[in-house]
From TrEMBL:
Function: Small GTPase required for proper nuclear import of RNA polymerase II and III (RNAPII and RNAPIII). May act at an RNAP assembly step prior to nuclear import.
Domain of life: Eukaryota
Compositionally biased tracts (Polar residues): 17-29
Region (Disordered): 7-29, 283-303
Name this protein carries in UniProt: GPN-loop GTPase 3
Record organism: Mycena chlorophos
Keyword annotations of the record: GTP-binding, Hydrolase, Nucleotide-binding
Protein family according to the UniProt entry: Belongs to the GPN-loop GTPase family.
Amino acid sequence: MRYAVLVTGPAGAGKSRNPNQNHNPTSAGKSTFTRSYLNHLTALKRTGHLVNLDPAASEESFEVEPVIDIKDLVSLEDVMGELGYGPNGGLVYCFEYLLENFDWLEEALGGYEDDYLVIDCPGQIELYTHHPFLPTLVQNLTKMGIRTSAVYLVESQFMEDKYKFFSGVLSAMSAMVNLEIPWINIMSKMDLVTADPDDSSRGARNGLRGRRNIARYLDPDPLLLASARGQEGDTANPRFHALNQAIVQLIEDHPLVSFLPLDLTSSDSLDTVISHIDYTMQYGEDEEPKEPHDLDEGDFELE
Ligand SMILES: Nc1nc2c(ncn2[C@@H]2O[C@H](COP(=O)(O)OP(=O)(O)OP(=O)(O)O)[C@@H](O)[C@H]2O)c(=O)[nH]1
Ligand SMILES: [Mg+2]
């Protein structure tokens, strides 16, 4: 049996791919997670392979070499330079080109029997919400006997306030219904969440950040979120309250949207996330199906 995990999620405004540059606060951290994931599999004495499907990925971001790289087929730089496309049109072109030349990918994947592929995807949200590329890719992988699941990373800053959170939830839901495969939502960069509730940062002042308050975002109780509205300092236009209420109702009616916390600085956290992914796609189902580890609350203690 072969397995593939698509690592998806929104990009930030502006790409900062160089790890030495300032951290890009709104990028989900897909590429970073992908590499930690593979290193962790190695530590567990398991084999995994990196597949890069981001035609704009920069070379220096690869501390783990991809076994398959879309840029060997088509790169965004070339498409933009030679065909005069902008970054978004260029990405669409690259994916169309990939699907038209799917035998290239099929051949490249052919050599990896009994394997576990971790696929780093680009961050353009349109790719997940309204283009047919990823669903077609998944169908093709399924035809090849590759069992595919997806993780959707949303950055922990989305927990800073409920409006950002709603936007993260809605994008996750939209991607989920578009792909229709086993799916896990992940709240990434938990290392950036302030541990100290007395922290005077903006998020902490709003009382919406800090480990103490995380639970309500990881496993959202919409009514709780809704009741957070109208707090002192909430400058939102009251006309939006009805809309928020409707979104809250939607979240409540679709309890699929919960998030697993991911803190790359904790190997336990990676362990938990990976065992959830394994469980979701029934990795090694010929053996006993695995129960996911209990969510390690030790890391995010709720007093
Ligand atoms: N503090 C912290 N920073 C992170 C983490 N993961 C990624 N970053 C930083 O966030 C930025 C973006 O990370 P990437 O992994 O390139 O994000 P991406 O989702 O692949 O971005 P795109 O490919 O542009 O969509 C980089 O500057 C990383 O160093 C994390 O777990 N914690
Ligand atoms: Mg990336």
